[in-house]
Automatic annotation (TrEMBL):
Residues 1-27 form the signal peptide. GO terms for biological process: proteolysis. Keywords: Hydrolase, Protease, Serine protease, Signal. The active site is at 160 (charge relay system), 217 (charge relay system), 539 (charge relay system). Transmembrane segments: none annotated. Residues 53-129 form the Inhibitor I9 domain. It comes from the Eukaryota. This is Subtilisin-like protease SBT4.3. InterPro entries: Peptidase_S8/S53_dom, Peptidase_S8/S53_dom_sf, Peptidase_S8_Ser-AS, Peptidase_S8_subtilisin-rel, Peptidases_S8_3, S8pro/Inhibitor_I9, S8pro/Inhibitor_I9_sf, SBT. One of its GO terms (molecular function) is serine-type endopeptidase activity.
């Protein structure tokens, strides 16, 4: 049964400990610098008698006259008796779907799982939160064609660390009242005021007192998606220009599900979905991810986004910051848009000039200018207090020996220790992420191992070693776009014949609005207050796509969520394989192209019924899916994942074994009423042969559907390899591109 299968996955694979809440890639440095601990799932080994927070998911809401809290109490009473039930219940979900959160032992959770009315039970986990140039870089200039009135009817719900309502990015000058469909409220807490731009706010954790953002992450993502046009934005003069979101006329509803120091729990995320769906949002942006190998529909994001999809709401999620290892992509449900991060052509570099005149180029976002002044430079191990065996940058740094000096550290984290010890600056070895510049709490530069070794040699040989850390410069990166090392890669652990991520979007060194009470470097001692800051991560890529969804929806309010998703994927720009050998498992369909997405020509559409048939093929049972969807599901009628009407085509093949695979697809005409599309396959690959039947699709009206079959075959792939091509349908005006991927990467062993 599904219950037994879900229990197996939950106990065997679920990542059940709390992961620290992180604001961006930089905040992930400790976890990444160690052993990528999130990449190896482990079992819940706590004693069966220890109570933890579990979510009990019951499925779709019954019809009229139903009281969710009353039913939830009754279910708990069956388990523990009338007197104890009330103390166990933490939260009821009953606006958009049915379920509750409760304090349970593992044994009690297993008993609930066996109850007929229960769809699934899973441990509430805590997740991590995973512009002046980025929109221009994707060909989306400020002068792009817009439907401002229709755009103002689009509501984007942002699930994050809250929002700073006074930011210029959320000013409501020129906005009329909220759309009539809005059913939400401004429940942001004390001294929190909404307006006609920021039309709603909620917070959930018992550790929060308002929806106000004290981390900066939520303000940054919200403004990236739909922030106002703000001229003269910069981080102390760096990245100066006009900041704006993808859909500046759209409205925002902020749902604070993440708390500083506590993270983002399943309990609160599911509550936000329950509210946002009922409130009337059109798009949900959720820059929250933790690599996990739990089964489908056993976490808050899968469940919440499924119910959102069934109501026509698109959920956009970050792919995660656990790259470059393969099989680490998060948020892989087929009804979500999963977004990888990419670099733009604007990069930040920071140069170090030694006393001997040698200049070295590193990475950091450093607004401080030493104005030609050089400071003594010391090696961290030489200024430690009785800790000769410890690396430079340890807690043993002697304050008296580093005051007024620059400290060379063997580890990226040494910048924190040097800062706490009162050093003037730090030069650190880049042991975390090699291709991203971070905001650090004081003048610092992150250099390669080779450059750090050359500085050590200079310190040893010079009588009076000195150095200067220059102010950060902006340079043009002509290799962009490419996916940086931190962005999580596919293939998916959950559905092996579905390509994830879906697309890539700018997520490296993005300037956007920020909370003035948050530390721009994430260091508690960094008291700088800024209105805009630079952040990196798939958390930054996700709201770019949410903004594009809002933009496309402003032109096509009647399009389904799958049609808009298809439009974004099939118009994405192919990316350079030389920078990303993982190919589509790094960047999905490619790099977003917002203007083309508004006029895709053809779209691949999916209904709730299609997803249910796929879930049947993935092993879920008819009764469970009926309970979840409210439809009468018969799993004798199922659709393999490879034949889901998805805009990409993907199949796992056994290494060195000949293969012959067929994909069935249907497209809907949304371009010219009378049009003929011709198929081409580019590029041609010697490892696979691709045929399309038929090769011509002729349409006589809008919304007309045509089906076709793609066949791929080959003599066998090398173990651990990926080979890809693309099917392109073209009518001379539109190019509708779908990646075709065959791979033999084993991530299931």
């Amino acid at each position: 049964s599904f219950t037994k299968m879900a229990k197996f996955f939950t106990s065997l694979f679920l990542i059940c400990s709390s992961f620290m809440f992180t604001r961006d890639v930089f905040a992930d440095e400790n976890r990444q610098a160690n052993s990528h601990m999130n990449k190896t799932p482990y079992t819940n080994s706590l004693p069966l008698s220890i109570k933890q927070v579990y979510i009990v998911y019951l499925g779709i809401l019954p019809e009229n006259g139903y009281s969710p809290p009353s039913r939830h109490h009754k279910i708990l009473q069956k388990l523990v008796g009338k007197n104890s039930a009330t103390s166990l219940l933490i939260r009821s979900y009953g606006r958009s779907f049915d379920g509750f959160a409760a304090n349970l032992t593992q044994s009690e959770s297993q008993q609930l799982e066996e109850m007929e009315e229960v769809a699934s039970v899973f441990l509430s986990k805590t997740y991590q939160l995973t512009t002046t140039r980025s929109w221009d870089f994707v060909g989306f200039s400020e002068s792009a064609k817009r439907e401002h009135v229709q755009e103002s009817d689009v509501i984007v719900g942002v699930f994050d660390s809250g929002i700073w309502p006074e930011s210029e990015s959320f000013d409501d000058k020129g906005f009329g009242p909220p759309p009539s469909k809005w059913k939400g409220s401004c429940s942001g807490g004390q001294k929190f005021t909404c307006n006609n731009k920021l039309i709603g706010a909620r917070f959930y954790s018992k550790y929060s007192v308002s929806a106000r953002d004290d981390e900066g992450h939520g303000t940054h993502t919200a403004s990236t998606a739909v922030g106002n046009v703000v001229q003269g934005a910069s981080f102390y003069g760096l990245a100066q220009g006009t900041a704006r979101g993808g859909a500046p006329s759209a409205r925002i509803a902020a749902y604070k599900v993440c708390v500083k120091g506590s993270g983002c729990s399943d309990v609160d995320i599911l509550a936000a979905f329950d509210d946002a769906i009922a409130d009337g949002v059109d798009v949900i942006s959720i820059s929250i991810s933790t690599y996990s190998v739990s089964s489908l529909l056993s976490n808050s994001k899968d469940i919440g986004s499924f119910h959102a999809m069934s109501r026509g709401i698109i959920t956009v999620g970050s792919a995660g910051n656990d790259g470059p290892d393969q099989g680490t992509v998060a948020n892989v449900s087929p009804w979500m848009i999963t977004v990888a991060a990419s670099a733009t052509d604007r990069r930040f570099v920071d140069r170090v000039v030694l006393g001997n005149g040698k200049a070295l180029t590193g990475l950091s976002v450093n607004p401080v200018n030493f104005n030609g002044t050089k400071f003594p430079i010391v090696y961290g191990q030489n200024v430690s207090r009785n800790c000769p065996e410890l690396q430079a940058g340890s807690a043993c740094v002697d304050r008296d020996l580093v005051k007024g000096k620059i400290v060379l550290c063997d580890d990226f984290q040494g910048n924190k220790e040097a800062y706490l010890a009162g050093a003037t600056g730090a030069i650190v070895q880049n042991t975390v992420v090699q291709d991203v510049a971070f905001v650090l709490p004081f003048p610092s530069s992150s250099l390669s191992l080779e450059d750090c070794e050359s500085i050590k040699s200079y310190i040893k040989s010079a009588e009076n070693p000195q150095a200067e850390i220059l102010r950060t410069e902006e340079i043009v990166d002509r290799e962009a776009p490419y996916v940086p090392s931190f962005s999580s890669r596919g293939p998916s652990y959950i559905i092996q014949n579905l390509l994830k991520p879906d697309v890539s979007a700018p997520g490296v060194e993005i300037l956007s609005a920020f909370s003035p009470v948050a530390s721009p470097s994430g260091h508690p001692g960094d008291k700088r207050s800024v209105k805009f800051s630079v952040m990196s991560g798939t958390s930054m890529a996700c709201p770019h796509v949410a903004g594009v969804v809002a933009y496309v929806k402003s032109f096509h309010a009647d399009w389904s969520s799958s049609a808009i998703k298809s439009a974004i994927m099939t118009t994405a720009t192919p990316m350079n394989l030389t920078k990303n050998p993982e190919q589509e498992f790094a960047y999905g369909s490619g790099h977003i192209n917002p203007t083309k997405a508004s006029d895709p020509g053809l779209v691949y559409e999916l209904e709730t019924e299609d997803y249910l048939k796929m879930l049947c093929a993935e092993g879920l049972k008819s009764g469970l899916l009926t309970r979840i969807s409210g439809q009468n599901v018969n799993c004798s009628d199922r659709t393999e994942a490879k034949d889901l009407n998805y805009p990409t085509m993907t199949s796992f093949v056994s290494a060195l074994v000949p293969f012959n695979i067929t994909f069935s697809r249907t497209v809907t005409n949304v371009g010219f009423p009378n049009s003929t599309y011709k198929a081409s396959v580019v590029p041609l690959r010697p490892e696979i042969q691709v045929s399309v039947e038929p090769e011509l699709l002729s349409f006589g009206s809008l919304k007309e559907k045509k089906s076709f079959v793609v066949n791929i075959s080959g003599k066998g792939l090398k173990d651990g390899s990926v080979v890809s091509s693309s099917l392109v349908w073209s009518d001379g005006s539109h190019s509708v591109r779908s990646p075709i991927v065959a791979y033999s990467i084993k991530i299931y062993d």
